[in-house]
Amino acid sequence: MKTLLKLTLVLALVFAAACACPANAQDEAAPAKGELVDEAGAAAKATTNEGSGGFFSVILGSGALGVMLWLALFGAAGAAVYFSVDCAITVRAKRIMPQELIDSVTEAMAEGDVLKALQNCEAEPGPMANILSAGFSHVEEGYDVIQESISTAADLETEQIMQKLTWLSVVGNLAPMLGLLGTVQGMIAAFSTLAEGAPDVGVLAMNISQALFTTAGGLTIAVPCVAVYYTFRNSANKIILQMEAMTIELIKDLRNVEVVEE
Questions:
Q1: φ, ψ of residue 196 in degrees (nearest 5)
Q2: Is residue 24 part of a domain?
Q3: Which residue of 66, 136, 159, 194 is surrounded by the most CB atoms within 10 Å?
Q4: Inter-CA distances, 184 with 108, 148, 157, 213, 240, Å
Q5: Cβ pair 233, 207 in contact under 8 A
Q6: Is residue 98 pLDDT above 60, yes or no?
Q7: What is the pLDDT, as a whole number, of residue 198?
Q8: Which of the two residues, 23 and 79, has the higher pLDDT score?
Q9: Do both 186 and 72 map to the same domain?
């Protein structure tokens, strides 16, 4: 959340700088004192100044709602980058099921030392360590209870992993809607210009540009976001299946554990 607030502040400063640039450009383009400019030349310069600025002119000319939509689009882009990097760091086999943990638990189980295996899990916290700890903590209650505990812990860890990916899906679905809202706003402004009678071609073109730019912005964010989401989701499902298989392999020796009733 702090990252998104910082990004919004930076974008606001960029917009403020963009507002100053067109004004400076108009001042530089103004004729010197005493210079004669005919009506055609003045109209041409006015049209040039009005159309200058490109992308920022489209944003600043879209009104308060348009600027808010663009801030939301840039915020969605920042969120997409943040969650993509976060998933790239956390949704990895080495992070979810580290080989060091597997080796240490395997060695402890070969020695029949469940307490040592539990200590190894506590020393390297993570999804797989949490699942194994849930099973080793109930070793005195029998294999059925161990399986149930591991199954519950595995469902919880899987849900936490998938929640990280869900945010990418949210951004991928939200960005085109924001772009569509900007498109509707631009088309409403364009038809309002036509309703006034003889339309100003420059204003009409600007309204259509606003509609198309927001659509392009939303799709530019959504397309890679959806691709990244499905890539990480498939990778997470593969890792989760491997983790479940490895967990069953590590606790198979606990089947022979006998529960002693006091």
A1: -75, -5
A2: yes
A3: 136
A4: 64, 53, 42, 12, 43
A5: no
A6: yes
A7: 67
A8: 79
A9: yes
Residue with tokens 């990244």: 228
In a domain? residue 159: yes
Q: Is the pLDDT of residue 50 over 50?
A: no
| pLDDT mean across residues, the chain | 74
Same domain, 86 and 154: yes
* pTM assigned to the model: 0.67
The total number of structural domains that make up the chain? 2
Residue 212: inside a domain? yes
Nearest to 220 by CA among 112, 80, 63, 101: 80
Of the two residues 210 and 18, the one the predictor is more confident about is 210
- Asked if 101 and 220 sit in the same domain, the reply is yes
The pair of three-digit structure tokens given for residue 163, joined into one six-digit string:
């929640």
In a domain, 262, yes or no: no
| CA–CA gap between residue 44 and residue 179 (Å, rounded) | 32
Q: Do both 121 and 229 map to the same domain? A: yes
Reading phi first (left if > 0) and then psi (alpha if -120 to 50, else beta), residue 233 is in alpha
The answer on pLDDT for 75 being more than 70 is yes
Domain limits at 9? 1-53
CB atoms within 10 A of CB 117: 28
**Helical residues (DSSP H) of 30-138, grouped into ranges:** 39-51, 55-60, 63-90, 93-96, 99-110, 114-123, 127-136
Task: Note the pLDDT tens digit of each residue in 146-195.
Answer: 888 888 888 888 888 888 888 999 999 999 998 888 888 888 877 777 77
Q: Answer yes or no: do 126 and 207 share one domain.
A: yes
